[in-house]
Amino acid sequence: MKRDVIIACDFATPEATLEFLDKFTDEKPFLKIGMELFYAGGPEIVRELRRRGHKIFLDLKLHDIPNTVRKAMKVLSRLDVDMVNVHASGTIEMMRAAAEGLREGRPEGERPLIIAVTQLTSTSQQALNEQLMIPGEINDVIARYAMNAKEAGLDGVVCSPLEAGLVKQACGEEFLTVTPGIRYPDAAKDDQSRITTPARAREIGSDFIVVGRPITAAPDPVAAYRRCMADFAD
Ligand code: C5P
To answer: Does residue 161's CB lie within 6 angstroms of at least one atom of ligand 1?
Structure first.
């Protein structure tokens, strides 16, 4: 798998997204569409970005009973996106159903990549133990959830770049790690805590980095994207 930079399009409207993307005249970045933009723009914004030639990671983090997730994934697969995700806490059975739904949606073509969220990076060790009532170390939970995703036939996980090595150790080099939490030392951390640079993420073993504000809020987003690509991509 070729390493690539995915821009998180955390915009409130399709118009704001397209205005931002109009700055990119020479390249077609891989884009992440999350809940905010999908709920605002619906399938039509996905189709429009596909028409413009972008690869799409549809970050909707599905989590429901297996049958519901299977049927929802069948619909998303037909949108011709390149990557989707689910919560690993939905169980191995739910993750298997998700992958099946993707294949059903594209009986002829290759199904989209499917990755799992192990634990949200916003979940602290204390919240894991005391609120979710999951005992033990958060890194052990992340490794186990990643192994569950692998057993279900998924392609990889979303995790902090600092956890990418742990995941590769547990699941093998071929198992993909998609990592947000990317910052340059000279920039604002915003609300991210477990962060690293594109070059370090590459060293640790990330396959894709997801970068939002360091590109979308930069004075020159195209230059910021090119800097990330130069430091990270193959
Ligand atoms: O602006 P920033 O680079 O922090 O954006 C990171 C993107 O990755 C956001 O869309 C955020 O929701 C997403 N994300 C994250 N941490 C996770 C999962 C997703 O930051 N664990």
So the answer is: no
Query: pTM, whole model, 2 decimals?
Result: 0.96
Whether the per-residue pLDDT at 170 is higher than 90: the answer is yes
Each residue's pLDDT tens digit, 37-65: 999 999 999 999 999 999 999 999 999 99
What string of DSSP letters covers 141-175?
A: HHHHHHHHHHHTT--EEE--GGGHHHHHHHH-TTS
CA distance 157 to 51: 27
Mark residue 42 as left, alpha or beta (left: phi above 0; alpha: psi -120 to 50; beta: remaining): left
Which residue minimizes the CA distance to atom 8 of ligand 1? 180
Give the pLDDT band of residue 216 (cuts 50, 70, 90).
Answer: very high
The angle subtended at Cα 165 by Cα 161 and Cα 170, nearest 5°, is 125
- At residue 77's C-alpha, the angle toward residues 3 and 221, to 5°, is 40
Nearest CA to ligand 1 atom 2: 212
Domains defined along the chain, listed by start: 4-232 (3.20.20.70)
Ligand 1 atom closest to residue 34's alpha carbon, by position in its atom list: 10
Instruction: Give 56-114 pLDDT, tens digit per residue.
Output: 999 999 999 999 999 999 999 999 999 999 999 999 999 999 999 999 999 998 999 99
* Token pair belonging to 227: 């800097």
